[in-house]
Amino acid sequence: MTDVIIPIEEDGGRTTSAPPPSSVRRSWAWVGLVPFFAFLFLFLIVPAFSVFLQALKTEEDGLSLSAMGEAFSGQNFQAFKFSIVFSAGAAIVGVVFGTLLAYAAASLIRPKWLRNLITSFSGVAANMGGLPLAFAFITLLGARAGVLTNVLNWLGIDIYDHGFDLGNTAGLIVVYSYFNIPLMVLITLPAIDGLKQSWREACANLGGTTFTYWRRVGIPVLTPSLLGGFLLLFANSFAAYATARILTDNSKIVSLRIAFFLGGDVGIGEDAVGFSLAAWMIIIMALCMSFYWLARKRAERWRA
Amino acid sequence: MTDHHIHLPPASTALLDDDDNPTAPTAVAPQSVGRPSSRFSKIVPVLVLLACGFFFLAPLLTLARHSLQNVPAFLLGRETLFKKWALTPVTLAFKDPAFWPALSLSLKLAAGTVLLTLGLLIPTAVWTHLRVPKARSLIEFVTVLPYMIPPIAMVAGIIIVKPHARWFLNSDLALIPFYVVLALPFTYRSIDAGLRAIDLRTLVDASRSLGAGWGATLWKVLLPNMRAAIISAAFLTAAVVIGEFTIADTLLKETLPRFQATFVGREPQAGYALNLLALLVTTLLFVLLSVLTRKRDVSRRPYVPPADLTAPSTSTGAHS
User: Fold this and answer.
1) In this complex, do B131 and A46 lie within 8 Å of one another by their Cβ atoms?
2) Which domains does chain B have, with CATH numbers?
3) To 5 degrees, how large is the angle CA B212–CA B216–CA B220?
4) How would you class A304 by CB atoms within 10 Å of its CB: exposed for 0-12, middle for 13-18, buried for 19 or more?
5) Are B92 and B273 contacting, i.e. CB atoms less than 8 angstroms apart?
């Protein structure tokens, strides 16, 4: 179940390919895929393409890049800055703690069920974004309703005095970690399991310490997975909407700002900015996912 | 001994260190070479596990408390801790007139999305595996495209297209095809993995040579063999649809998540209880899924040719 959520592992089963049918038949066989591609064309390609078209269109039916540039000025720029900063922060936190948790799970020997619990829970929690999560964190860390906030107050620590807020960078990082850390566990656990015992032994036989092992073998082998994980987590945080919608009221992050422009309470002509923000979001996501793909290919090199 | 330290492998160093029992290499060697043996590296995993346990449980527990106990957080203390607990807030949402239409819309959307997904993907995947294996990498690439177009960007696209297809997009159920696209990366992988795990060509040839038509082959031979993959695709789709907020919120479709969001404003405690319930139901769905697919594993292994017996049979993509 956990593996379906993200393409972590590529199955190597390419051996079952059919014997090549005659060329006449092959040309007809493609017809069977028409419904699928027609469906995708209508419901994925057309909407995505029209976002770009709308973002580039001017009132005189020409094309211009002005709206695309508009997306990087004033409040829109602030939104991009904020989104990128907190998404990067959330991704780093997720990578660090996700890897630590995955390592802890991988080195667990005694209670066998605990490892299974961690992987199953990760599969659930990685998809748990959305409303319930936002509300759960309000009951934990909210300004008034938060139990932990009040416990800390009672201990003499007022986190809200130190600039903490669930809608701020720190708050969003904490909340997003709830699905980012499990996602990272799902990504790195196969990689950590792939660290072979024999490598450690080989390193020890050559006189290396544990530190040498990690510096020269462990970390370099894991790097592509960690990098890929960072990109996926960044994309995941950058595009998230529901959780942020509950936790921050204003449109200070990009996904909320797009919704604000789409909501229709803006002047004519301004809505093009919403579409250009959406276009930029697609571009950023596409870049992240492409590099993630590359990192994954690289990570698979060590798995025989 | 410390002079030799650099030249000796750690295993032998540990052996020499062991004063109590210097002639028991087997007891020492595997431990010092293999698993982290220093106190530091033993305690770190435990600390990480404890910290994560707290982090992942605390919000759920406080959400449960907030839902079931009607005491403001700042009044919590020794004397109020056990007061005013009740299960009634959970049922309050059911009495709201807007709840049932929202739930029914979400269930309809989920059912429609599952049916359309399976109806579209199973024939396509089977056809690709049998007749157009060359297209497999293309289809695989296309199915991860939805990752690059997040829901909020897709909504922007829907709003642009809307004036040209108002007759279709004004309907609430028009969300179904977009939800199919949204869940595509999960669902296609699941079904594709299910097909890879069975010897499709042999099964189809056998069935066809026994006189079964394409319909019977699909219905009586392939679907039962792909049961685990189909179940997980269906459950994942349902979970995605029932929790989807972005598109429904922006297009103002009154689905369950939208009700969850607005109901909190009207009835805070009951609203939180409803969200707790939604969380529990989704989690149960996942637990049920893993139980269902595991059972099938044991009782009904899909047919695997002898050469592939070592390959994982139903795992949806992972192999070690």
Assistant:
1) no
2) 2-33 (no CATH), 39-86 (no CATH), 93-308 (1.10.3720.10)
3) 115
4) exposed
5) yes
Phi and psi, residue A63, nearest 5°:
-120, 135
Q: How far is A153 from A136, CA to CA, in rounded Å?
A: 19
Q: Are the C-beta atoms of A31 and B147 separated by less than 8 Å?
A: no
ipTM over 0.90: no
pTM: 0.81
DSSP B245: -
A93-107, A125-139, B290-304, range with the lowest pLDDT? B290-304
Give the residue with greater pLDDT, B109 vs B91: B109
Q: Do A33 and B72 touch (CB under 8 A)?
A: no
Per-residue pLDDT tens digits for B286-301: 888 888 877 554 455 5
Is residue A179 a contact partner of residue A236, using CB atoms and an 8 Å limit? yes
Tokens representing A86 are 């907190």
- Could you tell me the two tokens for B26? 């087997």
Cβ distance of B249 and A242 shorter than 8 Å: yes
CB count, 10 Å around CB of A31? Answer: 11
- A23 to chain B, any CB pair closer than 8 A? The answer is no
The backbone region for B25, taken as left when phi is positive above 0, alpha when psi lies in -120 to 50, beta otherwise, is: alpha
Which residue in B34, B72, B145 is closest to A44 by CB distance? Answer: B145
CB contact under 8 A, B148 and A18: no
Structural domains present in chain A: 65-302 (1.10.3720.10)
